[in-house]
Amino acid sequence: GILQHPDGTVLKQLQPPPRGPREQEFYNKVYDSDCCDSILLELREYLPKYFGVWSPPTAPNDMYLKLEDVTRKFNKPCIMDVKIGQKSYDPYASAEKIQQQVSKYPLMEEIGFLVLGMRVYHVSSDSYETQNQHYGRSLTKETVKDGISKFFHNGYCLRKDAIAASIQKTEKILEWFEGQKQLNFYASSLLFVYEGSCQATTVRLSDVTLAEKRGVPKGLLSGGDILEYNNNIHVINSTENGKIEASVSKGLSKFYALHKKAYSKRHHSQLSLKVENLEQDNMWKSSTCITQEHLNGNVIPQLEKVFCHMPAEIKESANVEVRMIDFAHVFPSNTKDEGYIYGLKNLITVLQNILDN
Questions:
Q1: Stretch 90-96: mean pLDDT, rounded?
Q2: Which helix (H) or strand (E) holds 10?
Q3: In this structure, are 175 and 129 located in the same domain?
Q4: Residue numbers of the domain that contains 228
Q5: pLDDT over 90 at 212, yes or no
Q6: DSSP letter (8 states) at residue 85
Q7: 209 and 135 in a common domain
Q8: What residue spans carry the region label Disordered (predicted)?
Q9: What's the confidence (pLDDT) of residue 222?
Q10: What's the CA gap between 207 and 220, in Å, rounded?
Q11: Cβ distance 81 to 116 under 8 Å?
Q12: pTM to 2 decimals?
């Protein structure tokens, strides 16, 4: 399972041989301080950071991989785990193991990926909805598009900004696979994470850049102005007079200003990397900057405008992570990993279809 270390990293218990040692060897090879292989150095960009092996003082024989918590920077992380590849068994699997894996999801070879689980934050109900691996295995060629689109729906509408950013990051991983012939991956996953809440992030822009991006007349903004986009709620905060002007609507300006203090006090989520290790309840209640009283009246249509009709430059800046995880079945090779490439291409096609329709 996955545990949380007090320093903010996550601990993945080493599996029994040969899987555990094989995964440890993979991480050691990729993150070797003497590594000068450009393929492996680039691969680091798509993995959680690795901090070696850790054992608790009271149980020195219990070994854990110490890894970056990819979800830690998010306030309300939406998480999806997707197994990639046409085969979920490695070349050394027994006939019995092959049959077992194929029977779990016979469409794996044709579709090229399997949704192992997802956890989605719904702004409207201030709660999480979770789906386990049985949900993914129930998806067919006809329903897989709708099944994955569920991950990007926040209760109001489709988060097209998160889809676009997910496609972009997945395409980078595909480029890496197209350019390497030294490793083949089996039963490995992609972890998708995006920000589900209205956690504020701040970007300082010059007057000229901001005027060009937003079509604002030059001189309207002072040099100290800050552009804040609160999960696509686009707000200009003037540091000179404290006046807040929203590019979306006056109602959202008031809404944002009312809750602005709450954003700055939010703590990072302490969540595990793996969806299936999260709680099994279908709906989770949790605190957020949007309270139920603000989900009534005119705020709902305003939020729909924010999430559904964002400017292109804001969509591109969605806070999204896509990382490769689970490496107990990675083997040396001298050919391209066609099974993984097939799965990535199909997944990108599905995501693009969701975005376009």
A1: 95
A2: strand 10-13
A3: yes
A4: 201-264
A5: no
A6: S
A7: no
A8: 1-20
A9: 33
A10: 8
A11: yes
A12: 0.72
